[in-house]
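Example for tutorial group B:
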């Protein structure tokens, strides 16, 4: 059984013949599942919580809308216990298009719930696939509603005509409680379950009980110790090239004011 993480994934031809189980339905998981399907592979996708949004709406890219709707400016402090929401799944393949795990199911991907255990070559599966897909659909509808409400306020922007979005595919995936790797012909598992930072080299008591840095906008309780570029460190843009500069300016100004005291 070959098991790899998405950072090691290169192309379908790099994998041995046979079925593939992709675990995780973030951007990487969905893109890999889609590519493998188009390459003629038998694909299983274990879905995790995520949000959907149209890649383009009224002629504008999703990132334009995230900026216009204030989603990029929303701070981590606005969420209970500073727990940020599931990621919004996007792709830039072929210029970018909508990513929809439910559509992948229609196209032939076997969509299943969360993997919760394993016994030999049998995996235990939570029967929550449709719940995950329903939540992603609601996020999609909420995004469109917010965008239309924004436009109704009379913004001065040249937008394309509002067109009805494609109807949600009317499909309910079959829930399973177990998955036999041999029976399913699966000989490769790709873990697209995200990543965690390794702060073992920072031997300073500046982390919470979940190993996350104790910081506000990059500033820690320890004088002279700062963080920068972390996902959702301050806002959604904190971990993006387009947003890290603002956090860097804030920290530079903070350091300057601190040294002047």
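The residue assignment follows.
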């Amino acid at each position: 059984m070959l098991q790899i993480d998405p950072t090691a994934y290169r192309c379908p031809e790099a994998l041995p013949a046979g079925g593939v189980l992709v675990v995780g339905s973030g951007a990487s998981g969905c893109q890999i599942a889609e590519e493998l399907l188009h390459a003629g592979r038998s694909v299983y996708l274990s879905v995790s919580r995520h949000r959907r949004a149209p890649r383009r709406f009224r002629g504008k890219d999703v990132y334009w809308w995230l900026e216009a709707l204030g989603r990029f400016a929303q701070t981590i402090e606005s969420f209970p216990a500073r727990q940020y929401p599931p990621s919004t799944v996007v792709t830039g393949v072929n210029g970018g298009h909508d990513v929809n795990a439910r559509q992948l199911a229609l196209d032939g991907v076997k969509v299943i719930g969360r993997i919760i255990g394993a016994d030999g070559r049998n995996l235990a599966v939570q029967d929550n696939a449709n719940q995950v897909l329903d939540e992603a659909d609601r996020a999609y509808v909420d995004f469109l509603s917010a965008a239309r409400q924004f436009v109704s306020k009379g913004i001065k922007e040249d937008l394309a005509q509002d067109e009805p979005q494609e109807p949600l595919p009317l499909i309910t995936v079959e829930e399973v409680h177990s998955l036999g790797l041999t029976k399913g012909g699966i000989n490769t598992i790709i873990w697209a379950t995200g990543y965690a930072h390794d702060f073992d080299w920072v031997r300073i008591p500046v982390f919470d009980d979940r190993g996350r840095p104790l910081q506000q906008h990059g500033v820690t309780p320890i004088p002279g110790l700062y963080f920068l570029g972390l996902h959702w460190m301050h806002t959604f843009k904190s971990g993006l090239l387009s947003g890290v500069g603002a956090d860097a300016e804030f920290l530079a100004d903070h350091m300057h004011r601190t040294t002047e005291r």
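Helices lie at 27-38, 62-68, 101-107, 129-152, 244-260. Compare this with the pattern of hydrophobic and polar residues in the output above.
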